[in-house]
Amino acid sequence: MDQILFTLAIYILRYITLHIYPDKSRKTGGTTFGRHLVKNIRLEQPCSCKAGQKKCTCHRPGKKETWLFSRFSTGWSCGLHADWTELTNCVPAIMEKKDCPRNHSHTRNFYYITMLRDPVSRYLSEWKHVQRGATWKTSLHMCDGRSPTPDELPTCYPGDDWSGVSLREFMDCTYNLANNRQVRMLADLSLVGCYNLTFMNESERNTILLQSAKNNLKNMAFFGLTEFQRKTQFLFERTFNLKFISPFTQFNITRASNVDINEGARQRIEELNFLDMQLYEYAKDLFQQRYHHTKQLEHQRDRQKRREGRRLQREHRGHRWPKEDGNTDGAVTEDYNSQVVRW
């Protein structure tokens, strides 16, 4: 259960490219969702996943064109755990180079999708991940054509990793990218001068980042919430007219859920992630609106189908078959449609 934004480049019926945002390190359930896309989705031509290989081959039926852009299909083509700013500037060129013959180009529609998670649980999960020795030193953090300087993006620890870090130490590092990670990874960082914190004052920067993250989330064809696995599955299937083979599982027991913190620590985490807290409230509201709207449309279609079925049954009951020899009264002894099970 890891990941926040991940670019899944899909093009299934038309030139659609679905992108899944940040994988493994971001702790939002995107890795699990990414595996669903390569191993658990019902397609005319499923992804080919070979034992011992980290990447699967996901081609459109009868073509050598990739429909899925993610760590599970194309690897880290845009850098390790690339964010929205990196991906939107990288993916089109990568896909053009990967799938198009020389002197020939495709017009593609790219659909970016993502997973979000409760900020406190996500933060604790990332802390436990770092505590076990995880690092992302090879992440590029590309923005406006360059990576940040060491002064713009200092590290929180000397040495190779931050193994064994306590929660207090993790929270005390002001440069920790775990803080408000979901907003930063969903926002257009070019709007705020990338990682240059002297580009504008902090208050203005935060306002722009949050609004940008909300806008990008709203404009995504689909996003899911880790805490609502079945609803996430339902929305994805209805949005893209696809079906998963097996239902999603809601994992209520995670590493984060096993962390026992006091109220003071929880409040501190919420303060450090105050932008993520606002984004998550916005995301939950938008998610529920989309879910209920989709449910309502489905109920309307079901009612229409039932009405149409009843209308057809009435028409068939009223139909009189032509008289046959020896049938003096012209009555039909058995109407086939009366034997059809009602919808």
Overview of this structure, please?
It contains nine helices and seven strands; from the N terminus they run ββαββαβααααβαβαα. The protein has helices at 30-39, 84-99, 119-131, 167-172, 181-186, 202-219, 229-240, 263-272, 274-317; strands at 5-6, 16-20, 41-42, 68-69, 109-116, 222-225, 243-244. The longest helix has 44 residues, at 274-317. It has one domain (9-299). 39% of the residues lie in helices and 7% in strands. Belongs to the sulfotransferase 6 family. InterPro entries: Heparan_SO4-6-sulfoTrfase, P-loop_NTPase, Sulfotransferase. It is found in: Membrane.
Ordered list of secondary-structure elements with their pairings:
Elements (H helix, E strand, L loop, with lengths): L4 E2 L9 E5 L9 H10 L1 E2 L25 E2 L14 H16 L9 E8 L2 H13 L35 H6 L8 H6 L15 H18 L2 E4 L3 H12 L2 E2 L18 H10 L1 H44 L26
Q: What's the quick description here?
A:
InterPro entries: Heparan_SO4-6-sulfoTrfase, P-loop_NTPase, Sulfotransferase. The protein has 343 residues and is an alpha/beta fold.
From the structure above, extract its key features.
alpha/beta, 9 helices, membrane, Sulfotransferase, transmembrane, 343 residues, disordered C terminus, P-loop_NTPase
Oligomerization state:
single chain
Distance between the termini: 40 Å
Order of helices and strands: EEHEEHEHHHHEHEHH
Q: Low-confidence stretches at least 5 residues in length (pLDDT < 50)? A: 1-17, 21-25, 328-343
Total individual domains: 1
- C-alpha-based Rg, rounded: 26 Å
Number of helices: 9
The secondary structure category is alpha/beta
Classify the helix fraction into a percent range. 25-40%
Task: Report mean pLDDT, rounded to a whole number.
Answer: 84
Q: What proportion strand?
A: 5-15%
Q: Can you count the beta strands? A: 7
Taken from the alpha-carbon principal axes, the silhouette is: globular
The major pleated sheet works out as:
5 strands, mixed
